[in-house]
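Kindly review this protein for my students:
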Amino acid sequence: MSCHESHSLYRVFCQVVRFHYYRTYTLLEKIGVYPGQHPLLFSLDKKGGQSQKELAARLHIKPATMTVMLNRLEKSEMIKRCPDDDDRRVSRVYLTEKGRKASCEVKKTLKTIDEECFGNFTAEERALLRKFLMRMRDNLLSVIDQ
């Protein structure tokens, strides 16, 4: 089967990824969160007071990218940075009340998207799909690390 055929696995997978991204972007935009920011919000919601360096390492993001993300979230008043009590060179990052509310709304939104994607799947189909996707992820990770 040619990869250019409309029913090829590659093409269908790319379509699913694109449609999922579009739907996620559309819904997150309504609450003022951009794609890629929600893992940061969740991490801070779980454990406030992390440094920029800790957040970048935890989320596997380059420090420069983390700086841009934090600046954008700070500008939108979802986070605040406070100097570390012991090392003034380090800033600790915390969610504001607006950030906590946004994190909660994002969780609800992602649950909605999950239901839209998988609502008509049986529990067995969901488990099987998860198994296949994890295998795909592992396959790609094995060649990326080479």
Observations:
- The chain has one domain: 9-117.
- The longest helix spans residues 97-118.
